[in-house]
Amino acid sequence: MAYGADMCEGEKNMRCVWSLTTLARRISNDPFAAAPCRLVTPRPKYHMPLQRQISFSKHLKAELKEQSEKADERDRLARIRAEDAARNKIIHLKVRPSEVKAAKTALSKHVASFERAASIKKSKESFFGVIDAFISRDRSRRGHMEFLKTAMVYMEEFGVEKDVEAYNRLLDIFPRGRYDNRTLFDAIWAKKHPQAELALEILTQMEDYWLLPNEDTYDILFEIFGHASQPLQKCRRLIYWYHKLEEMFPNPYPKKLPESDTEISKLALTRMTKDEQIIVVYKDNTNNESQEYLVGAQTKAQKKLLERYNSPKPLYVEGPFFIWVRRLQRYFFTLRTDAEWDKENEEGNIVAICMSHANASEDVLRMWITQLQRDNPTLANISIIFNLSQTPQ
Amino acid sequence: MASAGKGIFRNVRGFFQKPAVKKVVDTFFPDPMDKFKFEDVLWDFKNKAALEEWTLITDDQFGGKSTAEFVQSPGGRAIFKGNISTELPPATDVKYTGMCSIRAQPKWDWMGDVVTNDISDFDGIQMRLRGDGRTYAFNIQTHSIREDDIHQTFIHTRGGPLWEIVRIPFTKFVLTNAGYLQDHQMDFPRIRTVGFTLADHNMGPFHLEIDYIKMVMFMYKPKHFQYHYNRDF
User: Fold this and answer.
1) Which of A213, A263, A361, B61 is most exposed, with the fewest beta carbons within 10 Å of its own?
2) CA A204 to CA A217: how far, in whole Å?
3) Residue A270 and residue A299: Cα distance in Å, rounded?
4) Does residue A391 or residue A221 have the better pLDDT?
5) Which residues of chain B does A353 touch, with a Cβ-Cβ cutoff of 8 Å?
């Protein structure tokens, strides 16, 4: 204490005590700790006797002063920020944070391991190999969230996005005994573990790919998140609703659609009506490379209708109209009667349907009509108008 | 007139079989089944006025690029057509897009109460459609406490030029709230509005032609519930 050389002894002691109490106050961060050592103890604000307020002018003035001070402070801060921005060249975009699209995944250190595995072989085994390497490298599963998020992105590349086992392996990475519900309240008000939300995301992806969780999924989620946790609830719901919603479909397509155009057309034609149909493949493009194919269909009722067709009015070939076969857009053409022939049906009756590609030429459709004439002799006497549009309807 | 019974009973029965007496009895004690309706038409789109009571919503409300319209078809019915686009809007948190929906506007009576249709006499909904092979969701908004509750079911349209009649029993509806399937399924006594939604993650054009929507009484035999048996889960 060099500065205390010319002080008297008492004053020196006083200062020593003062500095000690200041230190203590700073440590404890208590404003009143140092109070007894001060010569004049400031009274706390709430001990002030209440003053009857006759006019508000005093308070208003004080408020105005405060506001001006605040405004000054704001200006000062703005100036500082502007200077900072100029120095750091930060560009402030006028975009609200909620509007900013979150990046799918930040480039994590696990990207490299996935890339390396993908460069060797893109298969289920190599995907599992990366997971095994991660588990064996870090027994405490540190950074497993980052790893899982990266793995979810790479699932499609490895071709395991429709494999339940892969999802089970992913869920298996979560460490046991950390995120389970321990009390009743945990189960009622679900804990906002980011890990639980990630597990829900994984299960949602399973749902999107229309996968049914199996017993392993259930057991893994039970071990990690426990009974009545959100991920396990989600798993239960998936299992409960899967078949109920699947079997709402009264006339489903086969699980894997056939590849040839004619087979797909046959499926679409059989689904158009529940009546029995005579489906004929007029032109097949499976063996040769040409694009053109033609599949026609006619029910017995339509055939009978054509037999008793006795009208000078022509028939119309119209199209192309589109139909969706799961995710594939296919096109069909119709042969219909005139609208005035049948009073009940204002649109005319459909006599035959054929499926072809969108820009089928008139020649192909003429071939269809000539083939139909073989089955329906009355068709030879009826004039036919081709009413084809450029865009599918 | 061959009347069974003997003695006084014969005379009593004969008395009640007289046409005048029969008429009097029928006016005072009418048969409840006389007024029973086996169907009740909710919407018939042959008249154009029904079209204007429907409303349309697409995902451009939150940045999507789908377009749709609900207009009168060339055949004189209503057609719901447009184009679904699953393109995500730039710089947002939106995960999925591609939704088009139509719904009947609720009606209010002079008291300010919502007009509802009582479904207790009916088994299900019947409608005449002509679709494009896509799967549409059919929504029923009920007179429920929670306004977001809708009962949904799927309509797997056949596609093609032929009309189809779709019958959906009320047992096939599932309760969803804000798009989430609920654990506690409930049945509903009244219908407020009906609507169709298309959101099948499938990019491209669509059209759904609707002739009528009505509630019908049919003896429902649950042959589709075979899947309750011989399943693991």
Assistant:
1) B61
2) 13
3) 10
4) A221
5) 160-161
Would strands B204-216 and B180-181 be described as parallel, antiparallel, or unpaired? unpaired
- Nearest CB to A321; choose among B134, B161, B172: B161
Rounded to whole angstroms, how far apart are CA atoms A250 and B144?
Answer: 30
- The alpha-carbon gap from A287 to the nearest alpha carbon of chain B, in Å, equals 27
List the single range of A12-16, A236-240, B23-27 with lowest mean pLDDT.
A12-16
CA-nearest residue to A95 within chain B is B91
| CA separation, residue B47 to residues A114, B41, B44, B52, B166 (Å) | 62, 13, 7, 10, 21
Does residue A328 belong to the interface with chain B, where contact is any CB pair within 8 Å? no
Query: Does residue A36 come out as left (phi exceeding 0), alpha (psi in the -120 to 50 range) or beta?
Result: alpha
Backbone angles phi, psi at A86, to 5 degrees: -60, -40
B160 CB neighbours in chain A (<8 A) are: 268-269, 271-273, 323, 332, 353
pLDDT, tens digit (0-9, with 9 covering 90-100), for A75-87: 887 877 677 656 5
Q: Are A155 and A169 in contact (CB under 8 A)?
A: no
Structure tokens at A80: 């500082």
Comparing alpha-carbon positions, the chain B residue that sits nearest to A243 is B227
pLDDT digits (tens, 9 = 90+) for A225-267: 988 888 999 999 999 999 888 888 877 888 889 988 889 999 9
Q: What is the DSSP string of A7-41?
A: S-HHHHHHHHHHHHHHHHHHHHT-TTTTGGGSSSP
Contacts of A393 in chain B (CB under 8 A): 207
Task: Give CA–CA dist B207/B136, Å, rounded.
Answer: 11
**Edge-to-edge strands, sheet with A350-356:** A277-283, A294-299, A350-356, A328-336, A315-325, A384-388
Cβ of A248 within 8 Å of Cβ of B156? The answer is yes
Chain B touched by A272 (CB under 8 Å) = yes
Contact B156 A322 (CB under 8 A): no
Q: Which two tokens stand for residue A285?
A: 């493009």
Picking from A208, A347, A355 by the largest number of B CB atoms within 10 A of its own CB, the best residue to mutate is A347
Length reported for chain B: 233
Give the N- to C-terminal CA distance of chain A in Å, as an integer: 97
Tell whether A144 lies on the interface with B, counting CB pairs under 8 A.
no
CA angle, B62 then B78 then B36, to 5°: 110
> Which of the residue ranges A122-136, A276-290, B65-79, B178-192 would you say has the lowest mean pLDDT?
A276-290
Calculate how close chain B gets to A175, using CA atoms only, in Å: 28
User: Hey, which residues does A390 pair with through a beta bridge?
Assistant: none
Q: Hey, are the CB atoms on B161 and A272 less than 8 Å from each other? A: yes
The pair of three-digit structure tokens given for residue A58, joined into one six-digit string: 């005093």
Give how far B93 is from chain A: nearest CA, Å. 5
Contact: B90, A332; criterion CB under 8 Å: no
Phi and psi at residue B14, to the nearest 5°: -60, -40
pLDDT tens readout for residues A50-77: 444 444 556 667 777 777 787 787 888 7
Q: Which residue of chain B has the CA closest to A297?
A: B160
